[in-house]
Amino acid sequence: MAIAASKPLRHFSPSLPHISSNKPKSHVRLPRVTFQALSSSSTSSPFTEANSLSRYQRETWTHNESTSNFRSNFDDKSNEIALQLPELKKLLEALRASREKEGGQLDSTAGPGRVALVGTGPGDPELLTVKAVRAIEKADLILYDRLVSNDVLELVRPDARLLYVGKTAGYHSRTQEEIHQLLLSFAEAGANVVRLKGGDPLVFGRGGEEMDFLQQQGIRVEVIPGITSASGIAAELGVPLTHRGIANSVRFLTGHSRNGGTDPLYVAENAADPDSTLVVYMGLSTLPALVPKLMSHGLPAETPAVAVERGTTPQQRTVFAELQDLVNEVKLAELVSPTLIIIGNVVALSPYWPYSSGENKVAAQESMLIR
């Protein structure tokens, strides 16, 4: 990935202290440092969005209208589903007929299909596991989320069927209950179903709910883990999530709450630990509420932090700041979802941290430019 500064980088004296412990330091206000891809617009996305024409082109089998008419359906969930239902029904009927035929020939009852919950990692297709690639290539039907990159979908074989079931703020193409029923219906019809999820399916991916539902219905479920965003993005930035003498634990926190559920930020009191690393998924909208709560519960205002938009992809943008400045700097950078936030002293170990030594900083920038 080729990365350069979106604005000219400010130079830092090698004599400035590089944080290597969690001991308090005299406060010096850090300037913001933002990195982004050389050839990518910050508004483009490697992921499947609600208004993605390429998604509709991949799913022409579910529509009776021409591609030229798809644009008018982007924001019309009921119309989209109505268009898809007839073809979904036809596919189910074809699968069931094939299963019954095979069962008759074998003079036995054909068993149900299987469902694989597959994690695709944070976005870079090269971070896929070999097992995930094999599952994708064998799938009859793939139900995929918004944060599955378009590059990953290129691995799907031509005769397999793709169905988008992604969610984003203000747009749910399917409810979770509808996703459950789709998985069950196609598995019962004998299909080899793959449920593609960004990151790891069991880390804020609702994979546990889908697995539990299907197993209760007697469907075989296999979970193929993916590199969760925290690991993939931290590695990209050279941030160790744990480090002897600096962070003895790491905590994953979701910035979203279940509909009607408790505000997820109530855990801020326990999460404000200077000896731990806090990673916030889906926390862009709740960051302005989280930061003051963390500081009010004792996390130092100068704690290093980083916010990463579309991590590990060519469109990655990264903002480093101290905790007290993070909300304002993220707002100034106009980061959008998906953005991962890492808070803790380990962030200062990154060669891109503004207080890194001059030698480390130059080497880091050169390594990113040649990738």
Automatic annotation (TrEMBL):
<keyword id="KW-0808">Transferase</keyword>
<keyword id="KW-0489">Methyltransferase</keyword>
<dbReference type="InterPro" id="IPR035996">
    <property type="entry name" value="4pyrrol_Methylase_sf"/>
</dbReference>
<dbReference type="InterPro" id="IPR014777">
    <property type="entry name" value="4pyrrole_Mease_sub1"/>
</dbReference>
<dbReference type="InterPro" id="IPR000878">
    <property type="entry name" value="4pyrrol_Mease"/>
</dbReference>
<feature type="region of interest" description="Disordered">
    <location>
        <begin position="1"/>
        <end position="28"/>
    </location>
</feature>
<dbReference type="GO" id="GO:0019354">
    <property type="term" value="P:siroheme biosynthetic process"/>
</dbReference>
<comment type="similarity">
    <text>Belongs to the precorrin methyltransferase family.</text>
</comment>
<dbReference type="GO" id="GO:0032259">
    <property type="term" value="P:methylation"/>
</dbReference>
<dbReference type="InterPro" id="IPR050161">
    <property type="entry name" value="Siro_Cobalamin_biosynth"/>
</dbReference>
<keyword id="KW-0949">S-adenosyl-L-methionine</keyword>
<dbReference type="InterPro" id="IPR003043">
    <property type="entry name" value="Uropor_MeTrfase_CS"/>
</dbReference>
<dbReference type="Pfam" id="PF00590">
    <property type="entry name" value="TP_methylase"/>
</dbReference>
<keyword id="KW-0627">Porphyrin biosynthesis</keyword>
<protein>
    <recommendedName>
        <fullName>uroporphyrinogen-III C-methyltransferase</fullName>
        <ecNumber>2.1.1.107</ecNumber>
    </recommendedName>
</protein>
<dbReference type="GO" id="GO:0004851">
    <property type="term" value="F:uroporphyrin-III C-methyltransferase activity"/>
</dbReference>
<feature type="domain" description="Tetrapyrrole methylase">
    <location>
        <begin position="115"/>
        <end position="326"/>
    </location>
</feature>
<dbReference type="InterPro" id="IPR014776">
    <property type="entry name" value="4pyrrole_Mease_sub2"/>
</dbReference>
<dbReference type="InterPro" id="IPR006366">
    <property type="entry name" value="CobA/CysG_C"/>
</dbReference>
